[in-house]
Design goal:
Number of strands: 2
Strand content: under 5%
Structural class: mainly alpha
Order of helices and strands: HHEEHHH
Shape: globular
Number of helices: 5
C-alpha cells in the first residue's frame, strides 16, 4: 500500500531565524541583556540583515542559554563565565541539559504527588 504524500498543511514549518525580542521573551530577559552579552562573549554572534536587525539561529540561542546558565543560574561573574567557556563548552552544555532534565522530572513528580493527594 502506498502512502499519500504529506500535504502542505501537514508539514511543520521550521523557523530558521528569530528576532532579539523573541529570544528575550523565550529566556525571560531583556533584549538589552542579550545585546550586552553579545558584546561581552565572542561565542554570541548573530547575523544581521540589511537593516542591521539581529537574526538568531537555534545555535545562537543555545549559546545564549549557556551564558544565561553560567551567569544567572550558577552565579558566575562575566570573567568567570568567559574562563569557563574557554575551557570547553561541551561539559557545561551537558551539565545544563542534565539540570534541565532533573527539573522536568521533579516537576512531573510534584504534579503526580498533587494528583494523588
Amino acid at each position: 500500500m502506498i502512502k499519500p504524500a504529506m500535504s502542505y498543511k501537514e508539514k511543520e514549518i521550521e523557523k530558521k531565524y528569530f528576532s532579539i525580542g523573541e529570544v528575550a521573551k523565550q529566556l525571560r530577559v531583556a533584549a538589552s541583556q542579550i545585546r550586552f552579552w553579545e558584546s561581552e562573549f565572542d561565542i554570541i554572534s548573530p547575523r544581521k540583515n540589511r537593516n542591521g536587525k539581529r537574526q538568531f539561529t537555534k545555535d545562537d540561542i543555545e549559546k545564549i542559554k549557556l551564558v544565561y546558565h553560567l551567569v544567572k543560574e550558577k552565579g558566575y561573574t562575566l570573567q568567570g563565565a568567559k574562563d569557563r567557556l574557554k575551557n570547553g563548552t561541551q561539559a557545561t552544555k551537558d551539565k545544563m541539559e542534565m539540570i534541565g532534565t532533573l527539573r522536568d522530572i521533579r516537576s512531573f513528580l510534584v504534579d503526580l504527588k498533587q494528583k494523588m493527594d
